[in-house]
């Protein structure tokens, strides 16, 4: 989310040094930005509200996965709701909400960004335990433990988002036509501030969580291929789609973060710094928009995954999607069937345990 509004509003020049020249407003970019945010708002808010309604109104008993999806939808939906501030910001080409709201809005945006990433990570870890360690670790995951972990996650994201309160202020700008505007922009006064904020954001919000996600799904896919039902291609494709979608939306944004960190290491008059900074400024708006759009992608993904339920279940198809299917049994043996995050059967094990009961609930 950092700099997306500033980039769209003022054009491709978003500099970390307070004494560098500000760019002239770009009406075309502002219009494109407002259109993107409007589409995101119209798609993301109803989509995530529908997920919340499906879980709260249709699911009588909620599994670990469903609780995580519920919190993810709340985080994404709240982030989408904040886009109304940026629509007004871009339409008026001036921040009219004051300095306090400038800090609060971007703080909430970053908080929900971290929350989305961490909740997706928890979903992958939960799935790893259910599929790979159903008898040793997964049975230790009770509803009480899950609620404490989720609460701790929200406390953590609220804490690590504090730099957004510190490094952002409203700035007054006057253009060549002597017109005054206000922008809600980063207030990095030292190069180390740039390095700290963007490096911390990328490490905590992408590198560490995504490494955990990739590791989890590699182990999961390895386990799936070792089972009797190793031809469950649809489920494996869905797992890969979630991982790939997450990476496609967030990787470009964090690459630009690292480029901006690298630029801040060079002296102010360095030609290399200028090239890196110019590239980051030119691409910041696009990569920020992609990361923002990711919060409305999950409802679309779930809809495609659950389209086979629409005909028979109507508006309850999403709840049906989150429900676990019944355990498969074979002759003279009882097998444990672990379901994935979207309720598909994936893994056979030797014994029917408490984990199967938890996974076969919505």
From TrEMBL:
Residue ranges constituting the G-protein coupled receptors family 1 profile domain according to the UniProt record? 47-302
- Spell out the molecular function terms from Gene Ontology: complement receptor activity; leukotriene receptor activity
Q: Does the keyword Methyltransferase apply?
A: no
Keywords of the record, alphabetical order, are: Cell membrane, Disulfide bond, G-protein coupled receptor, Glycoprotein, Membrane, Phosphoprotein, Receptor, Transducer, Transmembrane, Transmembrane helix
* Gene Ontology CC annotations of this record: plasma membrane
Q: What residue intervals traverse the membrane? A: 28-56, 68-92, 112-133, 145-167, 198-220, 240-266, 286-305
Q: Where is the composition biased (Polar residues)?
A: 352-362
Q: Could you tell me which residues belong to the region Disordered?
A: 337-362
This protein's membrane topology, according to the annotation, is: Multi-pass membrane protein
> Where is composition skewed (Basic and acidic residues) in this entry?
341-351
Q: Please name the SUPFAM superfamilies in this protein's record.
A: Family A G protein-coupled receptor-like (SSF81321)
By its UniProt entry, which Pfam families does this protein fall under?
Answer: 7tm_1
Location of this chain's protein in the cell? Cell membrane
Question: Could you tell me the Gene Ontology terms of the biological process aspect for this record?
Answer: inflammatory response; phospholipase C-activating G protein-coupled receptor signaling pathway; positive regulation of cytosolic calcium ion concentration
State the family named in the UniProt similarity comment for this chain. Answer: Belongs to the chemokine-like receptor (CMKLR) family.
**What protein is this chain from?**
G-protein coupled receptors family 1 profile domain-containing protein
Organism of this sequence: Astatotilapia calliptera
